[in-house]
Design a protein that fits this description.
This protein is mainly beta and 569 residues long. Helix content is 9%, strand content 36%. The strands form eight sheets. Strands 1, 2, 3, 4, 6, 7, 9 and 12 form an eight-stranded antiparallel sheet that branches. An eight-stranded antiparallel sheet has the order 33-32-31-38-37-36-35-34.
Length: 569
């Protein structure tokens, strides 16, 4: 007879089913008279000796986990549930079954280091692949035991997602929290949740508002598709769309939006912005290409991991839109609030995936003063052909582009073995006019393979270093992406002796990484962190990180519009 932690868990929960009976699990009835409370009980265990030195050995049988550490606590949902990253953990309780039939289950975590048990039998094993879907028969009319276990090396802070497909449902979805419960014997205290007004403290959003030109194909929260029943189309403007998505977002969660744009419409303009809402004109987070929380993926081969893994692909930052749909901001203000402080952003192609990772301590955006906007007329049939905006004005000139001479070596535009040499055209745009252009046949003056998606390869020399870059169909290419600093060392060379003005005064940077200026005390120290990011340590030791705009003509503190410095030319 096994005397294991697993059997102890099952007995505590009132289960008597064998571990591997080979028979369909039956619903549990032995606890029918016991008091139940919502959610599953989480018990955490210390790192096991087998996990101490071998970084590749993460699995430990449940009966060998040892003595629990810390207090037990309750999680109300398995979408996902989280635990201390340096520990092993088991979430256990009951799942209510409302219909007879076959039930499908799947689990997902970092490298799939988890397992799922129903009625004492392993349904989804450790490391069996997050694509694995197990099917078991269950009977209506009672609760079955459910155990979800996570291990050291499974990134407990990102959590485990358990999904199911009950009879009559066409696709996998999160298990409704109302069906999860545990025996309430008074020994486990639920975590207290402090309320702020009508909102929950720590919650970044109760719903999302998106404005897209053209539309969101799919959206995902923590790697799981947001269901159609959670999405509402609020408005459609000649193909552009406004949506509300009813999902709650907390620190540590991540969102992915698959957005598309038809570059043949409206002279190639596009738009995507999102607001995480706590109420009208009350923002938990907003889209902002200057924030490291926003990243993009344009490679379909990498999209699967980009969606499913929180930190995958976050090194590729989202970009401002060179030619945004001019009505987009108005629609955001009308549907999210007049003080919407966010900005539109995009990836590299007409079809792109945009990710937001909610930091642990995400600063709440400051609501802007209300902006009066004329209401956008909703029409079913246009009275006349709508006119899209003219190309935007040239971006502000950089401080001194000549300090970074650029020579275009060649440009090839096409797909497969059908390519056209567009070197002279690129030299005109980048070296002579220093203006933005679109990766389209009309801009590049040739179409080597009509009706196919094409890409543009560019080889160039900057500051004596040969570089190559690939841009995709319908992407807008900015001259600053060639002339501007490409990494932290280049920013460190570019910044000295430049002068900047803010509300408080003026600041000048020096080659010894000090800064002097009117209106600022002491001798601030600066350091370059990326091509568009730096840190300033002020006289009192306070360290602040700043982000440059895409023309390097201003920089500002993230989340603080007042702390903006503009270049003095």
């Amino acid at each position: 007879m096994k005397t294991t932690i697993l059997l102890s868990l099952m007995l505590c929960l009132g289960a008597a089913a064998p571990l591997c009976s080979g028979k369909p699990p039956a619903p549990d009835t032995s606890t029918a008279t016991r008091p139940f409370a919502p959610g599953l009980v989480v018990t955490e265990y210390p790192r096991h000796a087998a996990q101490a030195n071998d970084k590749g050995n993460f699995y430990v049988p449940l009966e060998q986990l040892g003595e629990p550490v810390g207090e037990k606590y309750v999680v109300e949902s398995l979408d996902p549930w989280k635990w201390n990253t340096e520990r092993n953990a088991v979430a256990s309780g009951f799942l209510e079954i409302e219909a007879d039939g076959d039930y499908c289950f799947t689990t997902r975590s970092f490298y799939d280091r988890n397992l799922l048990m129903i009625q004492g039998e392993i349904v989804c094993g450790f490391g069996d692949g997050d694509e694995t879907v197990a099917t078991i028969p269950l009977k209506k009319g009672g609760r079955v035991n459910i155990v979800s276990a996570g291990f050291v090396g499974g990134r407990g802070a990102s959590g485990i997602q358990v999904r199911w497909k009950p009879p009559g449902q066409t696709e996998l979805s999160p298990i409704p929290p109302r069906l999860l419960s545990h025996v309430d014997d008074g020994s486990v205290k639920p975590k207290l949740v402090e309320k702020v007004g009508k909102q929950t403290k720590g919650l970044l959003a109760t719903h999302l508002i998106t404005v897209t030109d053209d539309f969101v194909v799919e959206a995902y929260r923590n790697g799981v598709r947001i269901q159609d029943s959670q999405r509402t189309l609020l408005n459609e403007i000649f193909g552009a769309t406004v949506e509300r998505m009813n999902v709650e977002i907390r620190p540590g969660d991540w969102l992915v939006f698959h957005v598309v744009n038809n570059h043949m419409r409206w002279d190639g303009s596009k738009y995507f912005a999102v607001a995480g809402m706590l109420g009208t004109n009350d923002f938990g987070f907003v889209s902002d290409p200057a924030s490291e929380a926003w990243s993009v993926c344009d490679d379909p081969d990498r999209v699967r991991d980009f969606i499913r893994h929180r930190d995958e692909g976050t090194d590729v930052r989202a970009s401002p839109i060179a030619k945004p749909w001019e009505e987009g901001d108005d629609h955001m203000r009308q549907n999210a609030g007049a003080g919407f402080p966010g900005k539109s952003l995009w990836g590299g192609g007409a079809s792109t995936w945009i990710k937001f990772v909610a930091p642990k301590n995400h600063p709440k955006p400051a609501t802007l003063p209300g902006v009066e906007t004329a209401p956008v007329k909703e029409v079913s049939e246009p009275e006349s052909i709508p006119v899209k905006p003219a190309p935007p004005p040239e971006p502000k000139a950089m401080l001194s582009p000549k300090r970074w001479p650029v020579q275009i070596l060649y440009g090839m535009y096409g797909s497969g073995d059908k390519n056209a040499d567009v070197t002279l055209r690129l030299k005109e745009f980048i070296e002579q006019k220093k203006t933005w252009f679109a990766v389209t046949p009309s801009s590049l003056g040739i179409d080597p393979i009509p009706y196919w998606n094409k890409s543009l390869w560019i080889a160039y020399v900057k500051d004596g270093v040969r570089r190559e870059v690939r841009r995709y169909e319908n992407e807008h290419v900015l001259p600053e992406s060639f002339y501007g600093p490409q990494d932290a060392p280049e920013l460190a060379k570019w910044l000295p002796e430049t002068r900047w003005r803010a509300e408080k005064g003026e600041l000048q940077f020096h080659a010894d990484h000090t800064a002097t200026g009117y209106g600022f005390e002491g001798l601030p120290q600066w350091e370059a962190l990326a091509n568009n990011k730096m840190r300033i340590t002020w006289h009192d030791g306070h360290k602040v990180e700043y982000f440059f705009d895409y023309t390097w003509s201003s920089f500002r503190e993230e989340g603080n519009e007042k702390a903006t410095f503009n270049v003095m030319q």
